[in-house]
Specification:
Rossmann fold; three-stranded antiparallel sheet; single chain; eight-stranded mixed sheet; about 375 residues; alpha/beta; binds guanosine-5'-diphosphate; binds magnesium ion
Length: about 375
């Protein structure tokens, strides 16, 4: 068997690519593979042009002379059981014609196949690859891509604006938020922040307190039940002094209730809690006792966008049992992609109330906006501000 090298040709149309093959390798060249893809597009959707690629090899043994087919690279056409050798020039010419005919049919078939799959799957494949790069969980990606395949015609998918807009819509409808504002509360609104250690609860409390007081002119009070570490109390004390709001440090559920009662005429009371591992049942049940005493309107579960998938789902499972009724996603600035917001929203089925994007108090916090978050995922940038 004579090995011949496979060469690859690219052009903007299939016909041009095939013409190149014929020019270079002759009309007996054997097509090994064809494909088409978009080149030079922003994450495969915006701009760029279609490239047709044909890989082919020269036919090492012209079938007419050898009396048999070279079938090294011809998987599409089955080799005939036997081709009787012949010395007759007429028979040889006829066979030549037949081979040429079959080859043209195969070429046409390959072209049709690659044309029929080029648009729809290429566009949706690009969407799929992009969402996976954004660290959106595979099940969600599959679901969204399926929705798009139902929503859009092949032609619509080719329009990056239509495809992008549908993608933003489909993603944003999966992100429940408190965009329209938290449910109204008569009198003093009590909000507690709970969650694992180091996710940014205390920093977020300081951001919320500063925004309520300095930007909205509300009367704000703070309470901390995080007395396990001196440093944690000191951290909040410093913020309380800078923002100029009262801070109560409480040790028991009874003290917590008394502290809340003493601030009933405030607009907002924010409760900071000690970080609890989602695996620490005892401390979780103590926290549960504090929550029963405080009866907060909002129990924000604080979760870092940087958390891994396993930690994320166990955190959600445990803290939802403690009455969490919304999620604050922190450290979006440190995440490698925005997809975790969608994963958290989908897994928790809780509205996202705020997202935080840095350590700066009070600036690095925004109310969650589903469309803006969806755009971050679609455009692949972390700037939600
Ligand atoms: N990059 C970044 N760091 C944050 C963010 N929020 C909090 N942090 C930092 O995370 C660390 C732990 O925050 P802290 O509020 O003490 O977490 P807590 O243990 O949940 O109260 C601190 O160094 C914060 O400055 C954020 O949105 N982005
Ligand atoms: Mg803290």
């Amino acid at each position: 068997m004579i090995e011949t090298p496979v060469k690859t040709y690219q052009a903007t149309t299939m016909a041009q690519a095939l013409a190149q093959v014929k020019r270079d390798l002759g009309r007996d060249a054997i097509i090994v593979r064809t494909r088409s893809y978009r080149k030079g597009r922003l994450w495969g959707l915006f701009g760029g042009r279609n490239i047709w690629e044909v890989s082919a090899t020269a036919n090492a043994r012209p079938p007419v002379q050898s009396g048999s087919y070279s079938h090294d690279y011809a998987p599409v056409v089955k080799q005939p059981a036997a081709v009787p050798p012949t010395d007759q020039p007429a028979a040889s010419a006829e066979m030549d014609t037949q081979v040429g005919h079959i080859r043209r049919m195969v070429e046409a078939l390959l072209t049709m196949q690659s044309q029929s799959v080029s648009h729809t799957p290429t566009e949706l494949q690009a969407v799929r690859d992009h969402l996976l790069k954004q660290e959106v969980q595979e099940e969600i990606v599959t679901d969204v891509v399926h929705q798009l395949s139902q929503d859009l015609t092949g032609r619509q998918m080719e329009d990056p604006r239509v495809l992008g807009e549908s993608l933003v819509n489909r993603i944003s409808e999966r992100i429940l938020t408190q965009q329209s504002g938290q449910p109204a509360v008569e009198g003093c609104r009590i909000s507690a922040l709970i969650g694992p250690t180091g996710v940014g609860k205390t920093t977020t409390i300081a951001k919320l307190a500063a925004n309520h007081k300095l930007r909205e002119g509300r009367r704000v009070g703070m309470i901390t039940i995080d007395t396990y570490r001196i440093a944690a109390v000191d951290q909040l004390k410093i913020y309380a002094e800078i923002i100029d709001v009262p801070l109560h440090v409480v040790l028991t559920a009874g003290e917590l209730k008394a502290a809340i009662d003493s601030m009933r005429d405030y607009d907002v009371v924010l409760i900071d809690t000690a970080g609890r591992s989602q695996y620490d049942r005892l401390r979780l049940s103590q926290l549960s006792g504090f929550m029963r005493a405080a009866q907060p309107h909002d129990v924000h579960l604080v979760m870092a966008a940087t958390a891994g998938r396993a930690a994320m789902s166990s955190t959600l499972e445990r803290f939802v049992q403690l009455g969490a009724n919304s999620v604050i996603v922190t450290k979006l600035d440190e995440a490698t992609a925005c997809g975790s917001v969608l994963n958290i929203a989908a897994a928790g089925k809780l509205p996202i109330s705020f997202v935080t994007t840095g350590q700066d108090v009070p600036d690095d916090i925004q109310p969650a906006d589903a469309r803006r978050l969806a755009k971050c995922i679609v455009e692949g940038n972390l700037n939600v501000g």
